[in-house]
Amino acid sequence: MSSIASAEHQEQHSLQAASGELLYLGDEHLASAASLLFQAYRDDPLFQRIFVFEKEGYEQRLRAAIREELMFFKTSEQPMYGWFDGDTLEGVVCLTRAGAEWAPQRVWHWRLRMLLTAGFVSTRQMLEKERVIAEAMPVNDYHMLSFIAVHPRYQQQGLGALLVKAADNILSEVPESAGIAVFATRPEYARFFRQRGYVELRDVQVDSIRGQLLFHSRDDLG
Questions:
Q1: What domains are there in the chain, each with its CATH number?
Q2: Distance from the CA of 35 to the CA of which of 6, 63, 138, 220 falls in 20 to 30 A?
Q3: Distance in angstroms (rounded) separating the CA atoms of residues 175 and 114
Q4: Which stretch of DSSP H or E encloses residue 150?
Q5: What percent of the residues of the chain are helix, what percent strand, and what percent coil, each to the nearest 5?
Q6: Nearest CA among 40, 48, 140 for reference residue 92
C-alpha cells in the first residue's frame, strides 16, 4: 500500500488494494458517506445518549448531526476518506487534524447549524463529549479518530483494518501529531483497536456512558 496525501491538499491520491482504493471524500460523496455513517452509528450507545434515543425524532437528529459533521470536516479541510470499489462507497474514515485551532470548542457557524438541526441539548452534549476527551488526553497535538465505519454489506472483509492503516498513513505525514486517539464505547470496539496497535489510556465517562480512550502513538507506527 502506498501512503496517501494529507487532506490539506484535497487531492484524490489513492491507497491501492486488490478490491478498491481510498479516496478523499468530495462534495459528490458526502450524501453516501452520511448514509453509511448513520447505519454504523445508529445503535452506538454514546450517540443514542447524545441525541436522546428515547425521544421522538432520534434518527432525524442523528442524520442531521452527521451531515453537519461531514460539512464541517469538508470546509475545515479535516482528513476524511472513503474506501471505494468502483463507484461503490464501502467504508469511511474521518479524523480531526492535530492542533486544530477550533478544538475542543467548535466554531460559531457550526454551533448555530447544529442548534438548528440537532437541538440545544444534543449540541451541548457533543461539545461536552469533546471537552471530556480532550481533558483526558496526555498530549495536546494529536489526531482524533472521529468516524470509522464499514457498510454492513462489506464487513468481515478486512476493510476496517485498511481504514485503520489509512489513518496511520495520515498520521505519518503530520509530524506535529503525537498519535491518534479513539473513544471506544463498546468492548468489541476497544478490542478491535488494541489488536491494531492502540493502547488503552484510561476509562472515560461522557454523561452516563463509559468507554475506553485508546491511543496509537507515532512512535509505534510500523
A1: 7-220 (3.40.630.30)
A2: 6
A3: 32
A4: strand 143-150
A5: 45, 25, 30
A6: 40
152-172 per-position pLDDT tens digit: 888 888 899 999 999 999 999
Q: Which amino acid is at 214?
A: L
pLDDT at 46 over 90: no
Q: How far apart are CA 110 and CA 94, in angstroms?
A: 17
Average pLDDT value for residue range 140-161: 91
Of all residues in the chain, the percent with pLDDT exceeding 90 is 54
| Contacts for 121-127: CB closer than 8 Å, 24+ residues apart | 121/52, 122/50, 122/51, 122/52, 122/61, 122/65, 125/49, 125/50, 125/206, 125/207, 126/50, 126/65
- Collapse the DSSP code of 63 into the 3-class scheme (helix H, G, I; strand E, B; otherwise coil) and give the result: helix
The residue written with cell numbers 470509522 in the block is 148
Task: For residue 40, give the C-alpha cell.
Answer: 454504523
pLDDT (tens digit per residue) in 33-42: 999 999 999 9
C-alpha span between 214 and 211 (Å, rounded): 10
Cell digits of residue 178: 503525537
What pTM, to 2 d.p., does this model score?
0.82
Strands ordered across the beta sheet of 20-24: 15-17, 20-24, 80-85, 88-96, 143-150, 179-184, 209-217, 199-206
To which residue does cell 454551533 refer? 111
- DSSP H helix total and E strand total for the chain: 7, 8
